[in-house]
Design a protein that fits this description.
Strand order of the largest sheet: 1-2
Protein name: ModE family transcriptional regulator
Number of helices: 4
CATH superfamily of one domain: Winged helix-like DNA-binding domain superfamily/Winged helix DNA-binding domain
CATH class of one domain: Mainly Alpha
CATH architecture of one domain: Orthogonal Bundle
CATH topology of one domain: Arc Repressor Mutant, subunit A
Number of strands: 2
Order of helices and strands: HHHEEH
Helix content: 55-70%
């Protein structure tokens, strides 16, 4: 079903990035320490939730098969990473304060 709502978080983004790098769901899964089945289910969920697929696959042949991110897949990764960076900038002061509390509490241990 196109348009299902799914959570996009660091794990799915890392999977998309690994697929982009390795050109293979199996190799991407291995590089992230997950099963092929888990990676395939995540990709399938992402593809069905978006208006257009993020990942396309081609079956083998004389040149073998392959997997690639689509324009939508590249956009999802870029937008997620931009949101991540902008969120960090917006929260940096509070993160620094939180880290100072954690560091000062560990100093007394």
């Amino acid at each position: 079903m196109t348009g299902d709502i799914i959570a996009i978080g660091p794990g799915k983004i890392e999977l998309l990035e690994a697929i982009n790098e390795t050109k293979s769901i199996a190799a991407a899964a291995k590089s992230l320490g997950m099963s092929y089945r888990r990676a395939w289910l995540l990709v399938d969920g992402i593809n069905h939730a978006l208006n257009a697929p993020a990942v396309i696959t081609s079956t083998g042949g004389s040149h073998g098969g392959g997997t690639a991110l689509t324009e939508t897949g590249h956009l999802v990764v870029a937008l997620y990473r931009r949101i991540e960076q902008e969120s960090l900038k917006a929260c940096q002061s509070d993160l620094d304060k939180l880290l100072a509390l954690v560091q000062s509490s560990q100093a007394g241990i």
